[in-house]
Amino acid sequence: MNHDDASYIASLLYKRLSGTITSDEEVVLQKWLKENSANEAFAQQIEEDDFTKEIARRSPRYLSGLREELYAKIQQATGIERALSTGEAKVVPMQAKSRNRRPVLAYMRSNVVRVAVMLLIIAGVGALWIFLQRDHASTKTVKTIAVNNEIPPGGNRATLTLSDGSTIVLDSANIGTIAQQQNVAISKSAAGTVQYHVKGSGATSAMNTLSTPKGGQYKLVLPDGSKVWLNAASSITFPTQFATQERRVSITGEAYFEIAADAARPFYVKAKETDVKVLGTSFNINAYDDESEIATTLLIGAVMVSVGSRSQRLQPGQQAQSKGEELLLQKNIDTEAVVAWKEGYFNFQDMRLQAVMRQLERWYGIEVAYEGAVHNIAFYGKLSKDLTLQETLEGMAKTGLHFRLEGHRLIVTP
């Protein structure tokens, strides 16, 4: 069976699961099933998996999207298989699980390529995974050493620095009013959101900074009603009340914004040398020091990104990448993947090992080191951010990599 045949059989299996297979297609599938017992076992394993029941409950519209995603993944996987034969790349199946469940990978070995399909539901998010396994490929077990050193996931942790230099540890602050600066009251809600309430006008504005450590994230409502979500190891500096002509803030790290519309007062975000001008919109800025570029991604509305003398207007689904004086435009961005961190999960789509590890460093408060010739392989999949570090590493168990945890230092070896 060649790659096209494998893709066709995968499509027939999908159609059978979704109830859209024709009688002629069923004949072809039955012929394939009867070729050998391994084919029958493979199909039975898929059909008896929990994901089949989940598919059955989904709407036709959802199934259509799932089918398109499956076909796209099959085409992508075919190219990856060719890379496997030359040692250029690896396919990494990512699994997610609840606290009470160990990751499961349904896969099949044969003398040809087999496509294994798994539907995982992570906090209401449907995800389709494909893993290619060749007969001679060896499966290595991840060795994670974390005895008596379980590292929990991050959470709502942040520090608010007031204009006089005093600080408030927000995760331990009481619910209600936590500070008063002239005519501005600062409160913390039961959900852990910090909000600024301006009463009257005329008072002198002061600058405050909200910062998150590694392993922390936080939501902030600015004095104008704009909402900001800070990712781990990030900060935002802002006035306690905005000027009458404009609104300006600056950030480090990563933040997602939902800006309150105000045509008379444009909103500006500064991240290093990059300036973003908006009127009312939703967008994400990734400006971590350890990333090679600053990425501004637009979800709703319109923004103008400027670096030096260069400017680029973005449309929804576009991303501006700035580095020094360079400014590049990327179209058709997977915005879901960009803001996955805000929704409580990691989204690794063709993401290289080192980029994945940088995210784990920030969320789990660890330091990652590499020993030996560790290949910068590609990862595909989604993982809940509620998992402990050890559980997350177990979800990466089919890479062939090994992990050793020494305190808060994670060592990656071939």
TrEMBL record:
The keyword Transmembrane applies. The chain crosses the membrane at residues 111-132. The keyword Transmembrane applies. Pfam families: FecR, FecR_C. GO terms for molecular function: sigma factor antagonist activity. InterPro entries: FecR (IPR006860), FecR_C (IPR032508), Ferrdict_sens_TM (IPR012373). Residues 209-303 form the FecR protein domain. Residues 345-412 form the Protein FecR C-terminal domain. Keywords: Membrane, Transmembrane, Transmembrane helix. This is FecR domain-containing protein.
